[in-house]
Amino acid sequence: MREYRKSKQDRIGAALLDSLKFLEDQPINDIVVGTHLLGVHSRQVGLASLVDPAGGHLKKIPDERYWKALEGKSAKEVATKIFEVNTFDVGLGLATISSLYDYSKLDFIKVKAQDIIAEKGRGKEVAIVGHFPFVTRIKKEFQKLWVIELKPQKGDIDTEEGYKVLPRCDVVGITATTIINKTLDNILRTCKPGSFKILLGPSTPMSEVLFGFGIDLLAGSRVVKKDVVFSGIRNGNPFRHLKGIETVCLLRS
Question: Does 105 have pLDDT greater than 50?
Answer without folding.
Answer: yes
